């Protein structure tokens, strides 16, 4: 069978693309990529950052393009929830807290005020006493300040987002291949042959590749070129909470917190119930593209084996100790029942923006989430679907040059 569009990659961007394509008439579409494993083992090649119940989604951002993407994506969650029957978005609000004079915090505050004012949304100013009174269990640093906005801010179950997109897409006729794609070949007739790990092949007139951190490890792109991606191993620590702590923290928002001028920030997810029945508060750390001179909380990943081992490791003491210290400082009266480290690979770009665009006629790429793709992956999927059908960039709200696909051989020639 010849497909009109083959989407390679069944994570956030790829599944969202398949979902939006499934709503278009007279298209034969397939989605290629394995599902979430029951457990992570080195026998498996491909993993995803979407194996999680809690990822911050926020229209408060220091980057205007991300505000637009997140806002448009958040407006789409209710429809997808109705179609799939799955809960995706929880609107608990977003707090940005840090020190006066901090460039990063001031960037967030300025853009939050501007965007919320433009959209007619409430963005509350916070001083140290406001923070202490509002969230009595949280001990902030002295003289801190910030902003809080509830509407369109909170967290999503990115696992349910991906699952919901796949459910609706398959219901609408998208064919699913739960295999790893190994190669993409353009044949003499101009159409594409996708080679699966099983050796079987798929034929398609058009291609969308959305394989995240794994894009450069396979023979996908024309001329075997490499995207401008730097892969960073990222860690988070989930703190298991008992019923009393969960009740006490029931009004907690998602948060970005930068306690000192000379320190990185941490992001915090409120207590969320996971599939194992336990409730966790999750803490992650800021991303530093250059790890050479810094205390490592993550690791530069250069090979497929590096990525596999990172996802499958059982412990990373340096990160565990860092997060435990942070938790004890922020929540001195909360005693967790236990903790669980989790690992993923982030694909960072030199521009700090996602790479979305055509690498040749009928071949579109979406990659480089920069650790943020969960909160606007649904909207990126819409851009990809609309653009691959039209044959050119199709999003009036955003400039395609901001997302231009860049290759390593262009940057380091």
What is this structure, in a nutshell?
The chain is built from ten helices and 20 strands. It has helices at 12-21, 64-84, 103-119, 128-134, 158-171, 243-248, 304-312, 317-330, 373-390, 408-411, and strands spanning 2-8, 29-32, 55-57, 89-90, 94-98, 124-127, 145-149, 154-156, 175-177, 181-186, 192-196, 201-209, 230-240, 254-258, 266-273, 279-285, 299-301, 338-348, 355-360, 363-367. Helix 1 (12-21) links the parallel strand 1 and strand 2 (29-32).
Architecture overview:
The chain is an alpha+beta fold. It contains ten helices and 20 strands. Strands 5, 6, 7, 13, 14, 15, 16, 17 and 18 form a nine-stranded mixed β-sheet that branches. Strands 1, 2, 9, 10, 11, 12, 19 and 20 form an eight-stranded mixed β-sheet that branches. A three-stranded antiparallel β-sheet has the order 3-8-4. Helix 1 (12-21) packs parallel to helix 5. The protein starts with a strand and ends with a helix.
């Amino acid at each position: 069978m010849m497909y009109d569009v083959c989407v390679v990659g069944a994570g956030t961007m790829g599944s969202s693309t398949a979902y939006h394509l499934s709503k278009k008439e007279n298209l034969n579409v397939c989605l290629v990529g394995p599902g979430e494993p029951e457990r992570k083992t080195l026998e498996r090649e491909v993993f995803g950052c979407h194996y999680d119940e809690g990822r911050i989604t926020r229209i408060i951002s220091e980057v205007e393009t991300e505000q637009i993407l997140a806002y448009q994506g958040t407006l789409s969650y209710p429809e997808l929830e109705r179609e799939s029957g799955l809960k995706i978005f929880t609107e608990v609000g977003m707090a940005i807290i840090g020190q006066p004079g901090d460039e990063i915090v001031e960037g967030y505050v300025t853009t939050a005020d501007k965007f919320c004012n433009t959209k007619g949304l409430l963005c509350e100013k916070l001083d140290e006493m406001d923070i202490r009174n509002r969230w009595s269990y949280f001990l902030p640093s002295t003289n801190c300040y910030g902003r809080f906005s509830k509407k369109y801010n909170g967290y999503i179950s990115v696992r349910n987002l991906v699952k919901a997109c796949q459910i609706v897409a398959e219901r609408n006729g998208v064919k699913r291949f739960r295999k790893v794609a190994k190669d993409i070949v353009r044949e003499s007739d101009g159409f594409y042959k996708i080679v699966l790990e099983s050796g079987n092949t798929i034929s398609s007139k058009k291609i969308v590749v959305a394989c995240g951190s794994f894009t450069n490890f396979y023979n996908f792109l024309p001329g075997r070129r490499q995207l401008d991606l730097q892969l960073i191993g990222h860690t988070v620590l989930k703190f298991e909470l008992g019923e009393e702590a969960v009740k006490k923290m029931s009004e907690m928002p998602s948060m970005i917190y930068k306690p000192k001028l000379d320190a990185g920030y941490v992001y915090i997810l409120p207590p969320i119930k996971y599939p194992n029945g336990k409730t966790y508060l999750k803490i992650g750390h800021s991303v530093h593209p250059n790890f050479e001179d810094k205390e490592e909380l993550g690791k530069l990943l250069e090979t497929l084996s590096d990525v596999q081992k990172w996802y499958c490791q059982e412990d990373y003491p340096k990160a565990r100790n860092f997060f435990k210290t942070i938790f004890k400082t922020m929540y001195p009266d909360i005693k967790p029942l236990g903790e669980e480290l989790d690992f993923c690979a982030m694909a960072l770009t030199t521009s700090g923006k996602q790479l979305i665009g055509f690498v040749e006629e009928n071949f579109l790429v979406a990659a480089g989430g920069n650790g943020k793709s969960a909160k606007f992956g649904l909207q990126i999927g819409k851009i990809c679907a609309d653009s691959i059908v039209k044959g050119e960039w199709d999003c009036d709200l955003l400039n395609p040059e901001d997302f231009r696909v860049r290759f390593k051989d262009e940057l380091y020639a």
